[in-house]
Amino acid sequence: MSRRRSRRPQRHRDPYQAREAKKYANPITSREFIIGVIDDHGAPLRFDDLAEALQLADPQQLDALSRRLNAMARDGQVVCNRRGGYCVVNHEDLIHGRVIGHPDGFGFLHPDEGGDDLFLSPREMRRLWHGDRIVARVTGVDRRGRREAGVVEVAEQCSPMAARC
Length: 165
Hints:
Elements: H1 17-23, H2 31-41, E1 45-46, H3 47-53, H4 59-74, E2 78-80, E3 85-88, E4 94-101, E5 107-111, E6 118-120, H5 122-125, E7 133-141, E8 147-156
Antiparallel strand pairs: 1-3, 2-3, 4-5, 4-7, 5-6, 7-8
């Protein structure tokens, strides 16, 4: 006997819908469910495609989805690629930490979990400031045997004019 797939919109199958309804007057799909939809798709999803998959059409819902995705990107749960597609961050390969800048142009990433610092080349440091919080991945080993990092995302920008970050 074959099972028929439910024709209900995916947002109604969100297991965390009750929690979101308690928090917001106009509830939006939960972070966990959005991550599941992107994972199930298997490729980066553009905003319009994600809204269609969640069957959101109301301008208020689309605005709420946009704010939710921006918050998820800020928190390192998803990354928006250059083509505007949202991808789930594979946390096993990524390292979160704080940048330690050097006056000679290079720097180091001090991981939040502890352990050895990762080398940041002068090219990687061009868009970074001392004290920035970043998400990076190991790109290799430099000629001195240090692990090198490549910046995936700047999670928190430290202002160059701030006295202390």
